[in-house]
Amino acid sequence: MADKIYRINMSELSSSIEDVPESWAGHGGRGLTSTIVAAEVPPTCHPLGPNNKLVIAPGLLSGTVAANSGRISMGAKSPLTGTIKESNAGGTAAQLLARLGCKAIVLEGQPGDDKWYGINISADGVTIAEESELIGKGNFAVVETLEARADRKKGIIAVGPAGEMKMAAANISVKDPDSHIRSVGRGGLGAVMGSKKVKFITIDAGEGKVDVADPEAFKLANRAFAKALIDHPVSKGLGQYGTDVMVNIINESGGLPTRNFSLGQFDGHEKISGETMHDVIEERGGKPKHGCHQGCVIQCSQIYNDAKKNYKTSGFEYETIWAVGADCCVDNLDHIAEADHLMDDIGIDSIEIPVALAVAMEAGVLEFGDGEGVCRILREEVAKGTGLGRIIGAGTAVVGKAFGVTRVPVVKNQGIPAYDPRAIKGIGITYATSTMGADHTMGYAITSNLLNVGGSVDPLSNEGQVELSRNLQIATAAIDSTGMCLFIAFAALDDETCLPALVDLINARFGINLTGDDVVSLGKSILKTEKAFNEAAGFTKADDRLPEFFSTEALPPHNVVWDMPGEEIDKFWDF
Amino acid sequence: MADKIYRINMSELSSSIEDVPESWAGHGGRGLTSTIVAAEVPPTCHPLGPNNKLVIAPGLLSGTVAANSGRISMGAKSPLTGTIKESNAGGTAAQLLARLGCKAIVLEGQPGDDKWYGINISADGVTIAEESELIGKGNFAVVETLEARADRKKGIIAVGPAGEMKMAAANISVKDPDSHIRSVGRGGLGAVMGSKKVKFITIDAGEGKVDVADPEAFKLANRAFAKALIDHPVSKGLGQYGTDVMVNIINESGGLPTRNFSLGQFDGHEKISGETMHDVIEERGGKPKHGCHQGCVIQCSQIYNDAKKNYKTSGFEYETIWAVGADCCVDNLDHIAEADHLMDDIGIDSIEIPVALAVAMEAGVLEFGDGEGVCRILREEVAKGTGLGRIIGAGTAVVGKAFGVTRVPVVKNQGIPAYDPRAIKGIGITYATSTMGADHTMGYAITSNLLNVGGSVDPLSNEGQVELSRNLQIATAAIDSTGMCLFIAFAALDDETCLPALVDLINARFGINLTGDDVVSLGKSILKTEKAFNEAAGFTKADDRLPEFFSTEALPPHNVVWDMPGEEIDKFWDF
Q1: pLDDT band at B2 (very low <50, low <70, confident <90, very high)
Q2: What is the pLDDT of residues B74-112, one digit of tens each?
Q3: Can you tell me the mean pLDDT for A292-313?
Q4: Average of pLDDT values for B483-496?
Q5: How far is CA B529 from CA A198, B31, B353, in A?
Q6: Which chain A residues are within 8 Å of B401, Cβ to Cβ?
Q7: Nearest residue of A to residue B536 by CA position?
Q8: Distance between CA B472 and CA B431 in Å, rounded?
Q9: Of the partner residues B44, B408, B542, the one whose CB lies closest to the CB of residue A538
Q10: Of A350, B21, B105, B492, which sits most exposed with the smallest number of CB within 10 A?
Q11: Nearest CA of chain A to the CA of B391: how many Å?
């Protein structure tokens, strides 16, 4: 079955299934979302107006049995940053869409009235139905109700109350194989979906299957690829302790942003570390290893139960644990898990919101360390859209502006994640130059700065960081196009069999003959497409800078500042 | 007495009185604030951090008997827009500072603790004293208390609760000759003063006097100048009906932004017009004519009493009446007067706040037309810094972001004032290109677009608007440097004796020989200084654009959109 573009117009409540333009054919995932957004969205449009489009695309390898290929990309002009945006997650939607032959959903326009809609996509096409029962409901209720409504398993993509309220930090939830939730977290894409009055999209793949041009070659390549993933020591650490394995590593490095980025180490780090979490999970009969999508061989997710051994959350990530934990000084893992659960249910970015809360703590809205207060604000303010809830829900930069705070860790209005750029300078280049605002996943320089993956670059020196971030961002843009989880990068950087196997997978899937160089070219061209959109939207190199306080406030324990010259940062784009 | 720079460092709680550098000597008012900010403030600094500076400067002619020369300029990097900012007001401070020989106050640094301070400036120098009694108090209480404390009349510059809370729309209040309040309104300069923990500055001029180099020539020039002002028909209209004379004029033109910039005419315009206000004032024993500073011959201010004939507000401006009135659809002048009074007391911009409230109304926070609701939000939310109050206090753009509204009338994050750029295109060029965000006073194209002052340019055509705005912005930058009220511009544009008389005044004051061309050069160089600061802060021509909705939503009754090409706008800077 030839892949098609599913175009859904919410102004007209109509849809069409279109052939894929030739220039889009080689793209998938982020490459495709960015290509379509750049082609069809006016860069200066209001992100929540009818001219923005939400593009949802499985990766090039999604729907196949290739290991770790179940990520779904979503893209639009971001209401948080004003830049082009792609964010991706696991769950079942990527594989189901791919099996339906849906190369991308393009959700455009917006209704002229206040009605809400649910969309179903199946082999019979697209239906758009008015929805009222689920409006105002949290994601868990949405998933439960939609599953009860359906006679068979469907994929679900949904927004919670945050998306309905068009909060700039609203995310989009994707149902995972266990009917839990994965999040397309960053950049406020949930607000874009909400602005189009779409509460959910269900996906029924029926008997659809992905055609593989050379099944035998595919099988061989997948075997080599999966082996490389499984064998890498970082994969093992991720499987055992989850991404939260990073707490102790980053704390040790002195780059764990603590108390709203005023310290580089957190006294309570042991209490929230991956090692501790692992023990708590085991004690309470949870699951320390769990895949966010079928076919994952790393299994960094987990099932975290509460003290009564009832399910509390899954996909309990380092970034969230760091943000509610070290950055807000909360050293109680159960409070953090409750906050994670609430943010999943509200449908809001679990990085942006606690980073914003730490700024609010600095303004005196609540005390640092008050984990119950964090949960109360999420439940009583953010979920209900009160004044304070709207401030927090609009993200870190708005909190800074509303309360007149000067230590506001954002780049292009997006909250900076779990690695302080003063002590880990490579990631600072990524924050500064990323086409999507501060985002560690765009070029995870922690690899060479701290993990000795793909070589080693001194984290405290300015030397070599630009090149490191550049190479990583190019590779990441390509990986994000395949539907692969970014965690294949560790093996790809260290194991010489990994990347060739990935290229072989793509070639076997489509019957083509890409080389490693083609993949690098793809990554470069995606970054340039994204940058051109941002330039047309008004961004310049002056936006590729970190906030003033990183240069003026030294970070303990290394007592370092961010002193990367602007001209050095700008060399990032020399390719 | 030679003029001096009074430098006050709030990090050290110290002050120094310095000679004026030669390159600053020819500057006053806005020319001086912008010159000093450009020279001493790092363009990328946080506006509320220690590296921003608040510069306060009387004009070149302030402190003399020259008609209408009592405006005081204040400048800094704006917390609202991120651009350089100057805003000016009447009151007594300009004349008192000039008589003290203070060419500018440079307020820099910020205390490391939470203490608040009051500053007194007199012939004996500067004193900085800790203040507690007045912290949290509104401007009226501040003025009353400070007057009670002093044994003689002093000038007062103060911030209200909004400035203390560092709200991005906080203004700075200046006491007028009747102990009422004039506002340095736009751009959030009150937050900068608040960030430096200065609640007020009192000025005691003692027996100080301004030296005039050629008193006889000065007297003659002032006579001609004052006559030109008095004789101009617009001056007469302003004296009779206040600036609110514009309501009917702009409504008639179809360019009165109504219901959050969705209509060009307001049904209730008669109820809030200058003509109606005049009658109400007379009925209630108020004062229809009143000067905001000594020496004003236009007297556009007034004393507006409530229904019980008690004082309610003064300086009750068209912009405020339009914003609470037409833009929020409130057709009750007493509600608008109460809102004006509250905003003066809270110390917050009476343009930005109602423009922000209209956006909040569109989001459903309160009903359009609910004047009591506006007052309640000001009193119960903004003044108290609740969540909603913080959103409103942060200005129009933040309200739009917090509530996900797409019709958000701002340029460079500053709320657009009382003239719709779709129907009055010259002012649209000013909004787009002003170095300070949307601001009608930067180049008041209403002159030729509607008032037949300085010629006539069709308001609905794109032709001639760039040149019109350019000439006005250059002239305005120069006028803002003299300490003159901008309303001298009407006479200056139409009466050929006016501008030469103004130049003669400056020459007689300083014993120099400027020509009209020198004044134009001064205006140009101020604009270029300001633009260079903004460019270094990261602004580009992409920021010189109006929001998308002006191009996509036609404005009744003319059903016109903003369709000025970007390249045309950019020609503004061809000088």
Answers
A1: confident
A2: 999 999 999 999 999 999 999 999 999 999 999 999 999
A3: 94
A4: 94
A5: 48, 9, 29
A6: 79, 168, 394, 398
A7: A542
A8: 12
A9: B542
A10: B21
A11: 6
